[in-house]
Amino acid sequence: MSGALTIHEAAETTGWSPRMLRYIERIGLLVLRRSESGYRLYGPEELQRLRTLRELLAEFDVGLTDIGFALRMRREPELERAVDAWFETEPRRPQDVPADEWLRWEQDKHQKLIPATPPTLEPV
Amino acid sequence: MSGALTIHEAAETTGWSPRMLRYIERIGLLVLRRSESGYRLYGPEELQRLRTLRELLAEFDVGLTDIGFALRMRREPELERAVDAWFETEPRRPQDVPADEWLRWEQDKHQKLIPATPPTLEPV
DNA sequence: CGAACCTTGACAAGGGTTTGGTAAGGTAGG
DNA sequence: CCTACCTTACCAAACCCTTGTCAAGGTTCG
Fold it and tell me: Rounded CA gap, A115 and A13, in Å?
């Protein structure tokens, strides 16, 4: 086999395990070409996306299912519209929420889960 | 208390349990006013959003955490940008990728391919 | 005052997610 | 032909999400 990498080679250069590479394909985050005999083929584009995905998850402390949901919203415009509509109904104005209360919530939320990344949030 | 409902009353008219109403607030999906003594106050807008949220989850079979992630993307533009960027199939230039990898890719470009299975998936 | 609310915090059970491992069988290439 | 890879399918441990419930204490109001 020449050219594209097989799953173990892809695992080495991307930092994912072969098991996770199959999982990532299974949840729809990456569509892979297959060789005639059914082997997954990882080209440079796929490898780069896998590396970027890794950084994305680490940097923002999100999970694969989160990205899976983002994908679902992109694929299902109805879903995206429904979610957008839900967020836009009756936007609560900032002065409705005391600033210190809001800050306290965000601190609590992150102090257990995300030690590394500070929220950097703006009052909407 | 000026017309707003307390948590048990809100639970009855929205179909959520009091426990879940607190949970929904905790994950940031709803910001509630509080009475002087700290009681959560549910006004007509909150009640409507809670009903809509219920329908949203049921209709599309998504979870509260999914909506929580959508909320995070709205609050953290960096995250949204990163996710959007990942989904873009960016045009791949050779310098994005190690030279030998690119070479192997070029050599393999015309290999016969088996189309990937459509990304619609059953749960594992 | 006392009943019936409310608050936060904690424990827990059931189910889904994540990730690895292993097994049975097909494929690639020296 | 042999070895090392690949495939799918299943079992499993560790974790997280969902949801209920209970405890200790504050509030409302008859």
Answer: 28
Rg value, chain B, Cα: 24
B116: Cα within 13 Å, side-chain hemisphere: 15
Scanning B67-86 for CB atoms below 8 A from A yields 67, 69-76, 78-79, 82-83, 85-86
- Token digits for B7? 């948590």
Q: What is the pTM of this model?
A: 0.77
Of the partner residues A35, A86, A119, the one whose CB lies closest to the CB of residue B56: A86
Give me the amino acid identity at A31.
V
Angstrom distance (rounded) from CA B86 to CA A52: 7
Q: How big is the CA angle at B22 (ends B54 and B9), to the nearest 5 degrees?
A: 70
Whether residue B100 has pLDDT greater than 70: no
C-alpha A54/C-alpha A65 separation (Å) is: 13
Q: Residue holding tokens 């695992």? A: A11
> Average pLDDT of B48-59?
96
Pairwise CA distance, residues B52 & B10, whole Å: 14
d(CA B7, CA B10): 5
Query: Which element (helix H / strand E) includes B42?
Result: none
| Tokens encoding A69 | 């949901």
Question: What is the per-residue pLDDT across A29-75, written as a single tens digit (0 to 9) for each?
Answer: 999 999 999 999 999 999 999 999 999 999 999 999 999 999 999 99
Residue type, B38: G
- Tell whether A103 lies on the interface with B, counting CB pairs under 8 A: no
